[in-house]
Specification:
- Helix content is 9%, strand content 35%.
- By secondary structure, the chain is mainly beta.
- It has 3 domains: 118 residues, no CATH class; 102 residues, Thrombin, subunit H (Beta Barrel), CATH 2.40.10; 100 residues, Beta Barrel (Thrombin, subunit H).
- A 6-stranded antiparallel barrel has the order 9-10-13-12-11-14.
- β11 and β12 form a beta hairpin.
- It is elongated, with a radius of gyration of 26 Å.
Length: 345
């Protein structure tokens, strides 16, 4: 009897790996203390290199450095998938299982199980702004306001330096931007451009050869003389879908949209990577920071520590050398000057 009880307890303590009855059904693996996604991917599919995609497709994995006991994975011959059951209950004795890498899965529509994670998209509302790089020229300027108002808003009349000489016509729309502070690179002090903050939209009503009257049809912030005008694009609501990067990207966060020094999930930032470096809209980049070694304790024996993974961002719009991005996950406080890479190692 004691032997049977001992065998039963031993069986219950073993890592749970349940095979489905049919060959088409995936196996279900229950994560246990001591597991790492690096080890699991090596064990089951022999490929640990796709973990960022798994992280981005699964909301319950807020930190790719940690997985938790009782989470479940579907094990296919060529991939792993989280079982969409929500996060495991937080037990007092439950400790995170550290991982150095995870494995991700590209699931096609034909292969997607009923409860697998769907492709992630992010909705934008046209308030993100961008960096105006060297050589930028606006289409025109707001040169005056009705009754010499200091600021104007929706339905107010303003005057522009855009006219028929620029082939403008009545009814043409332009986006209004504030040309804000100059942005310098936090590492090498190179001037990267000027922050362009969206203010609203105006529509031309009466046209002269070199000037026009216009009405503000959309107001995000107050409009003052000197505001820049760009040809209107309807960016009021659009979706950006995650896209696998084709290039090895390495750069820095150079500024935040708000100008604050502390950056977190949901914040818009500007980075020093653009189309000239191979950056594309939808690319996810990982925010990392080097860990400083106290040489008093290593005496030169160690020159590098594992990098700290702080979060992730998705590129929303690209310029030549800069891009606008949205921080989609923050594990720790993020600052201007933190590094970004296309593959965290």
């Amino acid at each position: 009897m004691k032997i049977r009880v001992l065998l039963l307890v031993t069986f219950l303590l073993l890592p749970t790996f349940v095979h489905a009855a049919g060959q088409e059904e995936p196996a279900i693996y229950v994560i246990t203390q001591g597991d790492t996604l690096w080890g699991l991917s090596e064990r089951f599919i022999k490929d640990p290199k796709y973990w960022p995609e798994l992280w981005s497709r699964n909301g319950q994995v807020t930190n790719p450095h940690f997985i938790y006991p009782a989470q479940k994975l579907r094990v296919f011959p060529d991939r792993l998938e989280y079982v969409s059951e929500g996060p495991a209950p937080a037990l007092p004795e439950q400790k995170a299982v550290a991982v150095t890498a995870a494995v991700a899965v590209a699931v096609t529509a034909a292969e997607t199980p009923r409860d697998a994670a769907v492709e992630k998209t992010y909705v934008l509302y046209g308030t993100e702004g961008f960096l105006a790089e060297k050589g930028f020229r606006p289409a025109g300027l707001v040169i005056g306001t009705q009754h010499d108002r200091v600021v104007s808003g929706i339905d107010d009349i303003v005057y522009t330096d855009i006219g028929t000489d620029q082939h403008a016509g009545g009814g043409d729309k332009f986006s209004i931007f504030l040309k804000d502070a100059s942005v310098s690179h936090p590492v090498n002090n190179e001037e990267m451009g000027f922050k362009m903050i969206p203010l609203g939209v105006l529509q031309l009503t009466d046209i002269e050869r070199k000037s026009s009257r216009a009405i503000i049809t959309k107001s995000i912030r107050e409009v003052s003389p000197g505001a820049c005008l760009l040809p209107y694009k309807d960016n009021s609501r659009r979706e950006v879908t995650l896209k696998n990067g084709r290039n090895d990207l390495r750069g820095y966060i150079i500024e935040s949209h708000s100008g604050t020094g502390i950056i977190a999930a949901g914040d818009v930032v500007y980075i020093d990577l653009g189309t000239s470096q191979g950056a594309e809209v939808g690319n996810m980049l990982y925010i990392i920071r080097d860990v400083t070694i106290d040489q008093r304790y290593v005496e030169g024996r160690i020159d590098k520590l594992p990098q700290e993974l702080l979060g992730a961002l998705v590129i929303l719009a690209t310029g030549s050398k800069t891009s606008t991005a949205l921080v989609v996950k923050s594990i720790d406080t993020i600052h201007k000057g933190d590094r970004i890479v296309s593959l965290a190692k």
